[in-house]
């Protein structure tokens, strides 16, 4: 099948590479010449395991190519997948300007009976507006579909090759059958739904996972008051088949490119339709308030942040990615600097990303060596469960400070091992008596 993917960001590049690996003829289209030039060399502007290898192999086989030219990429396409960014505006609305810009550019080049599938995350009802917009710009016949993505950064290639489900929001049976054929090699779990249901399903999935994180954080806060251990509470929850043991992540709240954006946009959408008194608005509020609340509590344990040297381990929002969008580090480090702390940041992949997300500061430095980062620290703050951080031997370091606090923001470390290394331990919803 001949497929064109518009937008070569995270979702677009992964989708293009995977569809090419299924022996489709795929063109990745982007107006950014520098990005397209890099992709032709197999170079990706972000870290994602196995992606560069897949890009190079599929280009070498002739299944995948990249271009900036709509006149080249659009006329031959049987399926056009739009995967441009739809970031949130300050008021919570999804910014659809890139989506409409791509529609403007493709309209004059499409052929009859092409399928245009929107993979970008957009509010329910957007496809109706897209159809009206396109009808005013072309007299060619086309079918629209919603093709939401459910990728996790750090495992996106694997998620695309082996998805839990594929959701196709479409009114046309013919368009559904063609899109099902495109996805059939990946899974037999393919759902045909209304376009608005597909879009609502994407928001709902992420909002529910964000709800679990927010819920368990609230339980962890209560554990701090009564001596309960949140990890033991999670073990109890997990034995209830109605609840399950998965996706309980007590910590500093949810972050990344999807959860904050989707919860914020769902909250905004609910306000617009007169349903503002709901859980989504409260989840967003609780998540926004969590880091300031915890930093104040942690600061009280070290006599305030002023003058303290803090090693921040893990700058990305999760392991196996260099993406720092809505990462805990991006909110924590500026607050610590403002409070007078000296920061040393470490991350296996995000050190090159950090200057784009964190303003330079005389008391902010970075290190590619964990031992060097923590040796002189008053506080070690482990924010992300990178294997390089979790498996590090903290007893092997010669420390200069006799009293040190270890903040385990993901409850990943053995308390006794850290005590043996000379740390006082602070987890999330966990108490430990020295």
Structure classification: alpha/beta
Number of helices, where a helix is a run of at least 4 consecutive DSSP H or I residues: 17
Q: State the CATH topology of the largest domain.
A: Rossmann fold
Poorly predicted runs are none
* Percent range of helical residues: 40-55%
Sheet with most strands: strand arrangement: 3-2-1-4-5-6-7-8
Domains, number:
2
> What is the highest CATH level, the class of the largest domain?
Alpha Beta
- Rg, Å, rounded: 24 Å
Overall average pLDDT: 94
Briefly say what this structure is.
The chain has about 425 residues and is α/β, with parallel strands linked by helices. Helix content is about 40%, strand content about 15%.
Can you lay out the helices and strands and say which pair or pack?
Layout: E1 2-6, H1 10-21, E2 25-29, H2 33-40, H3 51-61, E3 64-67, H4 70-73, E4 79-82, H5 97-106, E5 114-118, H6 126-135, E6 142-146, H7 156-161, E7 166-170, H8 173-183, E8 190-193, H9 195-226, H10 230-238, H11 259-272, H12 279-301, E9 309-313, H13 328-338, E10 342-346, H14 354-357, E11 364-366, H15 370-374, E12 379-382, H16 387-390, E13 404-408, H17 415-420, E14 423-426
Helix pairs in contact: 1-3, 9-11, 9-12, 11-12
């Amino acid at each position: 099948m001949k497929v064109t993917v518009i937008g070569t960001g995270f979702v677009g590049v992964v989708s293009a590479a995977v569809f090419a690996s299924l022996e489709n003829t795929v063109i990745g289209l982007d107006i950014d010449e520098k990005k397209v030039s890099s992709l032709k060399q197999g170079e990706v502007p972000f870290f994602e395991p196995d992606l560069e290898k897949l890009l190079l192999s599929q280009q070498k086989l002739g299944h995948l190519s990249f271009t900036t030219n709509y006149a080249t990429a659009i006329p031959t396409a049987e399926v056009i997948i739009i995967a441009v960014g739809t970031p949130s505006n300050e008021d919570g609305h999804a910014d659809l300007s890139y989506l409409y810009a791509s529609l403007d550019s493709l309209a004059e080049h499409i052929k009859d009976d092409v399928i245009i599938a929107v993979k970008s995350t957009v509010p329910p009802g957007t496809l109706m507006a897209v159809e009206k917009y396109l009808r005013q710009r072309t007299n060619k016949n086309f079918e629209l579909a919603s093709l939401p993505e459910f990728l996790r950064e750090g495992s996106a290639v694997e998620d695309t090759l082996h998805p839990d489900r594929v959701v196709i929001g479409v009114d046309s049976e013919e368009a559904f059958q063609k899109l099902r054929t495109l996805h059939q090699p990946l899974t037999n779990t393919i759902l045909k739904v209304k376009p608005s249901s597909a879009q609502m399903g994407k928001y709902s999935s992420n909002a529910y996972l964000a709800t679990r994180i927010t819920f368990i954080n609230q339980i962890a806060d209560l554990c701090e008051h009564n001596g309960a251990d949140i990890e033991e509470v999670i073990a109890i929850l997990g034995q209830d088949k109605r609840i399950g043991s998965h996706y309980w992540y007590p910590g500093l709240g949810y972050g990344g490119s999807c959860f904050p954006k989707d919860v914020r946009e769902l909250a905004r959408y609910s306000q617009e339709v007169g349903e503002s008194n709901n859980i989504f608005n409260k989840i967003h509020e609780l998540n926004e308030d969590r880091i300031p609340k915890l930093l104040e509590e942690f600061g009280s344990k070290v006599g305030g942040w002023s003058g303290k040297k803090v090693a921040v381990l893990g700058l990305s929002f999760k392991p196996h990615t260099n993406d720092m969008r809505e990462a805990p580090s991006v909110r924590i480090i500026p607050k610590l600097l403002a409070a007078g702390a000296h920061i040393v940041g470490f991350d296996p992949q995000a050190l090159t990303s950090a200057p784009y997300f964190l303003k330079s500061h005389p008391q902010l430095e970075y290190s590619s060596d964990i031992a060097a980062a923590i040796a002189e620290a008053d506080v070690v703050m482990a924010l992300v469960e990178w294997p390089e951080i979790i498996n590090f031997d903290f007893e092997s370091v010669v420390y200069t400070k006799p009293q040190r606090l270890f903040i385990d923001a993901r409850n990943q470390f053995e308390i006794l091992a850290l005590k043996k290394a000379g740390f006082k331990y602070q987890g999330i919803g966990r108490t430990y008596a020295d």
